[in-house]
Design a protein that fits this description.
Distance between the termini: 36 Å
Helix content: 25-40%
Order of helices and strands: HEHEEHHEEEHHH
């Protein structure tokens, strides 16, 4: 799907696939596609697995913009949002993580940014927080009882979509031209080292 979107001329690709990290970034198909296409901005949801070291593919790629979810009401990370600094594969191999940190620097530490994705900071807190999304399938109508291809949802997928929209506006306004530019702007507002202490 990523390759098809590139072939169709997409310059910003929003992804919410969220598979478990199964190898290092040099041996994951998603990272290889992202790395080969530096002019395309790949925005990916961090995953909804709650714990540390649960970042999912393709967000583990140092070249992807990995997005976590924050609660609009609480101004804290949503209870479900996957946390870094990377996926489980790297957590089990700290020596390789250290080696790849020397190669990629801060780009290895995920997420790269957060956006409103619904979901409160503490599970079961009321009122529930959802983000309006277009949708089809089994989840449509879960919150509003209507089947109109639109509804409320929560997750890092919703947060990633907001960041994709922001990236599109920044590209259109000639503020950024690639993912590196976007991350540089984000780094001015968030110190990743403090976030993982």
């Amino acid at each position: 799907a990523m390759e098809y979107a590139i072939a169709e001329g997409c310059k910003i690709i929003n992804m919410s696939s969220g598979s478990s990290q199964y190898d290092d970034v040099f041996h994951t198909a998603e990272h290889l596609v992202i790395q080969k296409n530096p002019d395309v901005i790949f925005v990916s949801s961090s995953g909804n697995r709650t714990d540390f070291n649960t970042i999912t593919n393709p967000s583990t790629s140092p070249a992807a913009i990995c997005v976590g979810s924050v609660s609009l009401l609480d101004r804290e990370l949503s209870h479900f949002s996957s946390k870094g600094p990377q996926g489980q594969w790297y957590a089990n191999r700290p020596e390789i993580m250290e080696k790849h940190m020397k190669m990629f620097g801060e780009d290895m530490i995920k997420p790269d940014c957060v956006a409103f994705g619904g979901g409160r900071a503490k599970k079961e807190t009321r009122p529930e927080e959802v983000i309006g999304s277009s949708m089809t399938g089994w989840f449509e109508g879960f919150y509003d009882g209507r089947f109109d291809n639109y509804g409320g949802a929560q997750g890092t997928s919703q947060a990633a979509a907001l960041v994709s929209g922001l990236a599109a506006l920044l590209v259109e306004g000639k503020v950024i031209s690639d993912a590196h530019d976007f991350k540089s702007i984000m780094r001015r507002t968030w110190n990743k080292e403090k976030s993982i202490e």
